[in-house]
Amino acid sequence: MNIFGLWEGFYNDPWFWQFPMATLAISMAAFLLVATPWTIVAWLDPVSLRKYKIQQKPFEVKKFLLPSLGRILVNNAILASLLVLSWPLLKHTAVHNNELPIWYVILAQLLFFVLLDDFLYYWMHRYMHENKWLLRHVHSVHHRVRNTCGINGNYMHWLEYSLTATLTLIGPILLGAHLYVVWIWVIIRQIEGADGHIGYDIPWNPVHLLPVYEGPVYHDFHHAKFKGNYAGFLPYLDKYMGKTHIPAYLRYVQGKKRGLTAVEIEQQESVQQTAGRTG
Ligand SMILES: [Zn+2]
Ligand SMILES: [Zn+2]
Question: pTM of this prediction?
Answer without folding.
Answer: 0.92
